[in-house]
Design a protein that fits this description.
By secondary structure, this protein is of the alpha/beta class. It folds into two domains: 89 residues, Arc Repressor Mutant, subunit A (Orthogonal Bundle), CATH 1.10.10; 110 residues, Rossmann fold, CATH 3.40.50. The chain has ten helices and ten strands. The strands form two sheets. It has a seven-stranded mixed beta sheet, with helices on both faces. Helix 2 crosses helix 5. The longest helix has 23 residues. It is globular and about 60 Å long. The N and C termini lie far apart (64 Å). About 2% of the residues have low confidence.
Length: 238
């Protein structure tokens, strides 16, 4: 996407209505499920059908979408392609965001090779690190620059958001530097709870998600033990 088209898309964006974090967190799920419906060749869908797919009540779906105008027709449901287009607009998929990854280690290297960025309209245009063995090279299709070039490259490449995958002890210094640039947001994978008055921050805690899974698995195992006897053996096991 050219810079002129990208800027034009930004200028067309209207201020989004104020909605609850819970609604915002569900919007990417609408995006995913509607995209799947398009792949299946579905042209329309009811709130009831969506509710069964998403495990959210039909009433909640209607309330969520009404925050942005509704988009449905009584007796018809939702036009899948139209609703998908509107959800993309709300999420900013067509703006043409540009991102940079700070930290070219294992996690950063894996992320830049992940199709999630392209699928959601985000172009990763740079990586930054201090390791001389990777600076100047490309990981995937993304060039790694030295951290000394951070501000200069963010400006020249029109970076809107950055992804933190570097050691957590660097955070304060880097955030202070970013606050003087054109960057709007941070996707933070460092495991540290980051807050900023001037930057939008999305903190990602992979360990929290893993521990939540561990809890649920432990609960399921305990239920199985109670169901099958103290020894934990299933009825068909001798």
């Amino acid at each position: 996407m050219s810079e002129s088209v990208r800027q034009e898309n930004k200028e067309k964006e209207v201020l989004r209505p104020t909605v609850s974090p819970a609604v915002i967190n569900r919007l990417p799920r609408y995006f995913r499920y509607l995209r799947e419906l398009i792949r299946m060749g579905k042209t329309r869908v009811s709130s009831l059908e969506l509710s069964k797919m998403m495990n959210v009540t039909a009433s909640q779906i209607r309330q969520d979408l009404n925050c942005f105008g509704g988009f449905g027709q009584q007796g018809y449901g939702y036009n899948v392609n139209y609703l998908y287009t509107k959800i993309c607009e709300i999420l900013g998929v067509g703006i043409g965001f540009r991102a940079a990854v700070i930290g070219a280690g294992n996690l950063g290297s894996a992320l830049v090779r992940c199709p999630v960025f392209e699928q959601r309209g985000v172009d990763v245009v740079a990586m930054f690190d201090v390791d001389k063995t990777v600076v100047g090279k490309k990981i995937g299709n993304v060039r790694v620059y030295h951290m000394n070039e951070l501000e200069k490259r963010i400006k020249s490449l029109s970076v809107d958001m950055v992804i933190f995958t570097m050691p957590k002890d660097c955070i304060d210094e880097i955030v202070a530097r970013l606050q003087k640039t054109s960057v709007y947001g941070i996707w933070n994978f460092t495991g540290t709870e980051l807050e900023s008055d001037s930057l939008v921050v999305e903190n990602i805690h992979i360990g929290d998600s893993l521990m939540a899974l561990c809890f649920e698995v432990a609960q399921r195992m305990e239920q199985e033990k109670r169901k099958n006897g103290k020894d934990g053996k299933k009825p068909w096991e001798k």
